Each structure stands twice: as structure tokens, then as C-alpha cells.
């Protein structure tokens, strides 16, 4: 029997290469600002050859959430796929060093470990160019039933909906979790990802596969195909699954904080104070980490969202999507723990 987990994350195992740049470079490279773009290996090599000096750190949206939750005291595990290469070893080492359980065997053949080239402009906005590589090899065989059943919450990264085998791993994990009486959360990940799979994501919500939804306001507007923020929030508020149950929705709104949507009600949460926005990479990931860590501690939804806002505020004040300060100490100083 697997040791109980507070949180189990399924996500893309990616190593981030983060570099400062400007809008002119993005234009020269033909890269629309602020989104995530999937690239092939040739494009990855080409981009790496012309981008500036990079900070290299283990990343991936779901992995960032797993690390953040672990640093807030949650017992956390991760399921993702790397290759048995240098970057794959770096990813596994970094994840385990933060206390996250990671036992999925590395692939011995096939594409290299995934990497994401993150270009950060002076306003702190990040533009991501992702070579998925070995990530696409994640399959249902990598989803251990006992591990999934042991987790109070299973958190699924929306980006996993791109590779077909990973999609099936996603569905398998959701089914195991619900059969064990546990919760399933989904992050929409990116507005372009929502655009590719809108009907499928709505289907997951409405057939009861998902209990908790994380999104930023842009992703939510894409989900409901509206430019009106209030209309998007109202649509989420009124959403019910086929059993008539309301979804728990957490919607981030950058400097305007976040919204907790549950049971036909919407609660507003203020953003935590920020001295300077340096790099917004991982803000949504760490918001989810804080919320889920608070949830694991038995905090109510609003208190958990405030913890999420604190974690998000910490990570946008430095380069990289992994916290650099003691989140528990910060939370205690703010009276959140």
C-alpha cells in the first residue's frame, strides 16, 4: 500500500531555460508575446543558439505546483516522463530535493527530456517555447493505481491533453481517484490550450470528471468564448455537472487577485503585495500550490486562496518558477498559517 499523499500531480516533466529579452527579439523570432508555443527539436536548437544567457532550472507547470505545495508542508508526489539523459537526471534530482516523490522510470530510448525556452520581457511577461520531447511518452502504464488512490487530491495539468497517451493517463488517474473517493483538480494551463480542447475540457467538467478547476481570467474567457469577464465568471458560477453538483473554481486575475467560485457564489481575494514584478513564470502554478496546500491543512477555500496568492506573489519577484524564500515562514508572518 502506498503511503498517503496530500497531493499527486500529473504533468509534463520539463527543464526550463529562462532568459531576459525584449519585444524586438520576440518579433524577430516570430513569437507572439505571452503565450506557450509548441516547437520541434530543430526549432529548439535554433532558438537556443540565438537567445541570451539562460538560467536553467527544473520546471513544468504541474511540477512547479508539486514543489510549491511540498514547500508549504503538503506530502506531494509527481507523475511525469523524462529521458535517461543529463536534463532528465537534473529534473529528477531537483524534484526529489524539494521532498516531492517521483518514481516514474526514465525512458531509455526515444526523444530527449523536454525543455521550455522562457523569454522574459522587461514587464515581467513570459513567452514560452516548449519542446515536449520525452513528455509525450507518458502513458497509462506510468500511472500506479495504489499511488493515485492514496492521494487526497489528484491535480492534472491541462497541457497533458496534447499527447494522446498522456490524455489516457489523465483519464485513468481521474477514474482511480474518484473510485477511491478522492478529489480531482484540473488547471486549464493556457488560453491556446483551451482553444484547442475547449469542448473536451467542458466535457470533463460537465460529466463530473473534475471537482476543482484552476484558470486565469484569460483562460476562463477562452473556455466560455467571451470577452466579458463577468460573463465568464457567471458561466463558471452556474456550471453544474450531470449529478447537479457545483464545481469549485479558482480564477486568478493577476494584480487584481483571485476569485473563489463555489456553490453559486463568487468571493474576491486580494492579491498579495509585490515590491517588483520580475518574472511572471509560475504565478498560476504557485497559486494552485498554495491553495492545495491550504486545502490539505483543512483551511477553508478563501483562506486557501489567500495562501495561494502569497505563493504566487513570492515567485513573480524573481527569475524562475520555484520559490526562493521560505513559504511557510512568509505565510506565518502574514497570519495565514
UniProtKB/TrEMBL annotation:
PANTHER family hit by this protein: CARBOHYDRATE KINASE PFKB DOMAIN-CONTAINING PROTEIN, SUGAR KINASE
Residues in Carbohydrate kinase PfkB domain copies: 57-322
Organism: Methylobacterium bullatum
InterPro entries: Carb_kinase_PfkB-like (IPR052700), Carboh/pur_kinase_PfkB_CS (IPR002173), PfkB_dom (IPR011611), Ribokinase-like (IPR029056)
Keyword Kinase among UniProt keywords: yes
One Pfam match: PfkB
Protein name as annotated: Ribokinase
Family statement: Belongs to the carbohydrate kinase PfkB family.
GO MF, one example: kinase activity
Top-rank taxon, per record: Bacteria
Keyword annotations of the record: Kinase, Transferase
Lineage start: Bacteria, Pseudomonadati, Pseudomonadota, Alphaproteobacteria, Hyphomicrobiales
